[in-house]
Structures are given as C-alpha cells and as structure tokens.
Input
Amino acid sequence: LGKLWAHEINHTDVETELRTRWGDALANANKYRIRIECLIDHAVAKNARADGPNPARKEIIKQLIPAAPETVHRPAMKYSEVPAFYRELVADGSPAARSLAFLILTVARNGEARKADWSEVIDDAWIIPGGREERSMKEGEEHAVPLSPAALALLGQRASGLIFGQMHKNALLDKLHALRDGLTVHGFRTSFTSWARK
Output
C-alpha cells in the first residue's frame, strides 16, 4: 500500500495487503487493518481523499476474509510456576531482571516495561502514554496501571529518565532465555489470563 496514494486505496488493495500479512493470528491482521483504517480516515480529514465508506472498516473486511487461522499462542510459563520465577528475577536484581519482574506484575508489554520512565510514575500509578507500543485493544491510548507495593519496590530510588536504564529490544527475552529457555516475554500475559480465569 505504500506505493499508492491514499485516494487510490480500495477494498481489493486492503484485502490483498491483509492476506499477505495474515500470518498465524487474527490479532496481527486486525492491527494492520486498524492502521490502514486510521490512515484513510486521516487522509479524509486532510482532504487527501473524498469522504465515504472506509475500505478497511471491519464490516467489509470480514466479508472479504471471512475466516482466519486459529491464533497460535506464544509459549507461556504455567501460572503456578510464575511466583518462583518472579523470586528468581528479584534475587537476580539486574535491570533486565527487574524490568521483566515489573512486566509480570503489571501485565505490561515488552516495550512498555523496558521504556518505563520516572515521569510516568505518579503516586502509586504508572501512566503509560499512548503510542508506547502497538496495542490491538488500546491503539494509541494513554492508560493507567495501578502499582502494587511489590511493583513499586522494583522501581528502586526515584530518579529521572528510564527507570531500568537503556536496554536493547531483546534484553528481556535474553534474560528470560538465560533462566528458562523456550518461552516468550509476551507469554506472561497468557500466564496472567490463565490465572485470572482459574
């Protein structure tokens, strides 16, 4: 779609784009659909495209691509094993281990936890700004996460800048694999969901 002008994009273009990016999960395709829909809405707002039905709206796409492959869940730790693993991370004490422990307690995403900044911590809440990381449910929205005493303890002495320091994109995954191979950082969200549904 990047080779097309906004006013040229039609249902067929959107369908083709989503089919090439469908992958193994409906959520992935829906994220692309939302981006395309937002881009077209923006083009309309800026008079770069005539107003009218958005070719990326959900009602149309579900007719073009009626069924998606089942979501393949990322490898996750059993929720019963998470407390012991959390204690290992706290004992480790490295920035990546603390950030991963913070992620577990707040059910945050990798980029959210890695890039947590002291300016976002207000009293006992963490205010995550919109656009920190792609989210299918909270696309670009600021949201607040209550911080438990354990989560606050992981933050350490208040300072300025990034709470856990500058880390590369895979720092949390590398720490996880050093302690438990074969799992994914995102899988802790699945662990939390399994525990919550118990």
In short: The radius of gyration is 20 Å. The chain is about 45% helix and 5% strand. Strands lie at 121-122, 125-128, 143-146.
